[in-house]
Prior knowledge:
By secondary structure, the chain is mainly alpha-helical. The protein contains four helices and two strands.
Amino acid sequence: MDATTQKKFDEVASLIKQKEEIEERIKNILNPEPRVALPDDFSIKDNVLTIIQDSGSDGISKRKILDEIRLKHPKVKINATQVGSSLAYLKQGKKQITLDKGKYTALNAV
């Protein structure tokens, strides 16, 4: 096989590899991550509020809230976005918590 033929084969192999990588990226974009269903008796909002109330007037950070939920419920997959959504709901919608210097406190503990 001469050099030009080998070069063509290498180019075709490279293009095939690129095609496979592109198809994989397209598949990842089009197929969302599977959602994990929470148990029926589990409420992120209620757990977040309980943890904040238990922290007293000292307050607690978002990260510590997430860590405590993960410790108490290791089989339930919780992420920071879900905790953040619950905090926003409790702060803005229900007006049950406040945020001061990165610490969340329950209004009845202030």
